[in-house]
Specification:
4 strands, Endonuclease, Chain A, 2 domains, 11% strand, 4-stranded mixed beta sheet, mitochondrion, 281 residues
Length: 281
């Protein structure tokens, strides 16, 4: 994939529209790490696509914008073309392909949360978004049981399960706890801590169950959609924690609980480690 990046950068005009869209699909799906050439690669692809804008239909415009959004890149000319009322009406009326609604919703949330520096503010009109039904997915029973076991004795930590954020992302669990450096502040104090909002003065940990298909094969590198989810959760003030299939494979609930404790509360692990070493000695 690295060699192909070089080929694209050196001769972008040799690629057809179909090939450029395919390139975007591959690199966004795998969340490929372009390292120091990331911006150059994306700018070159954007510029190459600009020459096709007047000939691109609604489906092609939406597909390209969606793929760029996954890569946290927002070409203004492409977005302005896509977000014209006539183009959006065509997309809605023709029901261009399966899944277009999810692509439009992703574009909307990326524009709202990533806040790209565009020449003019852009947003997705409500008539395209419609009223999507609340997202839901089945509870993972093992994860649910382990999270509840983890919180035994944690009186200052609250657990909410299957939380929907921004009417788009489903979180298997949200743990809310006071910040580790939280101290009581007198009522008469005018400190910064006192002036913080409830969301700012608490720590929110988003627990996400991620099956193997969410990662690039044989690695811990999250694929496109999961990578965007993590990016947006951080923007929203969450600390995301991924729990994989392998993490829940232990037959012992105690082992699963200890593993999740290390993932979710690493500060507790570091505090208890010296004590355990003393006991072993």
């Amino acid at each position: 994939m690295e060699a192909f990046v070089t080929k694209v950068i050196e001769n972008p005009n040799s690629f057809t529209l179909k090939t450029l869209l395919c390139v975007l699909k591959v690199y966004s799906s795998f969340n490929y790490n372009l390292k120091h050439r990331r911006q150059q690669f994306l700018d070159v692809i954007s510029h190459a696509l600009d020459s096709y804008l007047s000939r691109m239909n609604g489906s092609e415009l939406l597909t390209a914008a969606y793929r760029f959004c996954l890569l946290n890149h927002f070409p203004s000319a492409l977005l302005e073309q896509l977000l014209q009322t006539s183009v959006l009406e065509q997309i809605v009326e023709q029901n261009i392909h399966k899944g277009w609604e999810s692509m439009v919703q992703m574009l909307d949330i990326c524009l709202r949360l990533d806040r790209p520096p565009l020449p003019q503010p852009l947003s997705v009109p409500t008539f395209v978004l419609g009223n999507p039904p609340p997202r839901s997915q089945p509870v993972n029973p093992q994860l649910s049981q382990t999270l509840q076991s983890l919180l035994v004795g944690q009186t200052n930590t609250e657990l909410q399960e299957m939380v929907v954020v921004e009417n788009f992302y489903v979180l298997d669990g949200v743990l809310t706890k006071p910040p580790s450096n939280h101290t009581c502040v007198p009522e008469t104090s005018s400190s910064t801590e006192e002036q913080r909002s409830p969301a700012e003065s608490t720590q929110r940990i988003a627990v996400i169950y991620a099956p193997k298909s969410n990662f690039c094969y044989g690695t811990s590198n999250p694929r496109g959609l999961l990578a965007v989810k993590l990016r947006h959760l951080k923007i929203l003030g969450f600390t995301p924690v991924l729990v994989t299939e392998q993490d829940l494979q232990s037959e012992s609930e105690e082992d699963r609980t200890n593993l999740l404790r290390r993932l979710i509360f690493p500060e507790h692990t570091s505090e208890t480690q010296p004590k355990m070493e003393q006991l072993d000695a």
